[in-house]
């Protein structure tokens, strides 16, 4: 006989066919002695690949059976790709300015934070359904290859790429973290606008506030 049961779960309902795409609104915050510096736009951002690692299981055996399983600490890193980068990123990439427009390589590398946005889409609104903000803390970039090629009949721009690792920062109510993700379709719109004013800076009534990277506890209090 045909199955006549009506299930409580509905698959692929209208408006629920979600996907994530794109990357834009990159912002760099170089870390200094007193925290993260003013944010600057990261133009030409083409991709950010998140590569979490760790959380590997270690099995414990007792009484001739698998007694428990423990997991190692999780780490967070990734790869940033872009056609260009802010001048401020030079000191994060081991370049020291020794004169105007002159940089010496193989120098110390500063830590940095950054944020970027990915778009959320669905079957009703397309890619304008919403977005996610990704905040990354305590990042350090590794040396990377730069390949220069002659201009030919099929010219292309050079793409720069940097692998990065992170050191987590403290967060009240949870373990230290290196990354926070905010979903615009779930966060309070007014509170999210306040957070974006902090991340991107604001300008109103003849005055302006520099962009800055709030730490996890401030992000939580702003959105709560």
Write the layout of secondary structure elements.
Blueprint (H helix, E strand, L loop, with lengths): L18 E14 L2 E2 L3 E3 L2 E6 L2 E2 L2 E6 L2 E7 L2 E2 L1 E6 L13 E4 L2 E3 L7 E11 L3 E16 L18 E7 L12 E5 L5 H12 L1 E3 L2 E3 L6 H8 L1
Antiparallel strand pairs: 1-2, 1-3, 1-12, 4-9, 5-8, 6-7, 9-14, 10-11, 12-13, 13-14, 13-15, 16-17
Task: Describe the structure in brief.
The protein is mostly beta strands and 224 residues long. It has helices spanning 189-200, 216-223; strands spanning 19-32, 35-36, 40-42, 45-50, 53-54, 57-62, 65-71, 74-75, 77-82, 96-99, 102-104, 112-122, 126-141, 160-166, 179-183, 202-204, 207-209. The chain contains two helices and 17 strands.
Describe the overall structure.
There is one protein chain. The chain has helices spanning 189-200, 216-223, and strands at residues 19-32, 35-36, 40-42, 45-50, 53-54, 57-62, 65-71, 74-75, 77-82, 96-99, 102-104, 112-122, 126-141, 160-166, 179-183, 202-204, 207-209. The protein is mainly beta. The strands form 5 sheets. Strands 1, 2, 3, 4, 9, 12, 13, 14 and 15 form a 9-stranded antiparallel β-sheet that branches. The chain has a two-stranded antiparallel ribbon with strand order 5-8. A two-stranded antiparallel sheet has the order 6-7. A hairpin with a 2-residue loop joins strand 6 (57-62) and strand 7 (65-71). The longest helix is centred in the C-terminal third of the chain and has 12 residues, at 189-200. The radius of gyration is 22 Å and the shape is globular. The mean pLDDT is 92.
């Amino acid at each position: 006989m045909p199955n006549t049961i009506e299930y409580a779960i509905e698959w692929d309902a209208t408006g629920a066919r979600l996907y994530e795409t794109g990357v834009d609104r990159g912002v760099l915050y170089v870390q200094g002695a007193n925290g993260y510096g003013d944010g600057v736009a990261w133009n030409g951002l083409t991709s950010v690949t998140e590569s979490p690692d760790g959380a590997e299981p270690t099995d414990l055996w007792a009484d001739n059976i698998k007694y428990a399983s423990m997991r190692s600490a999780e780490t967070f890193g990734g790869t940033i790709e872009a056609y260009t980068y802010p001048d401020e990123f030079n000191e994060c990439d081991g370049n020291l300015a020794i004169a105007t427009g002159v940089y010496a390589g193989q120098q110390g590398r500063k830590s940095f934070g950054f944020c970027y946005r990915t778009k959320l889409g669905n079957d009703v609104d397309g890619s304008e359904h919403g977005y996610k903000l990704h905040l990354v803390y305590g990042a350090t970039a590794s040396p990377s290859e730069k390949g220069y090629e002659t201009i030919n009949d099929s010219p292309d721009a050079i793409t720069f790429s940097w692998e990065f690792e992170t050191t987590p920062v403290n967060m009240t109510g949870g373990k230290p973290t290196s990354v926070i993700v905010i979903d615009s379709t779930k966060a309070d719109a007014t509170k999210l606008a306040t957070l974006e004013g902090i991340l991107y800076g604001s300008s109103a009534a003849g005055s302006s506030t520099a962009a800055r990277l709030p730490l996890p506890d401030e992000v939580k209090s702003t959105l709560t």
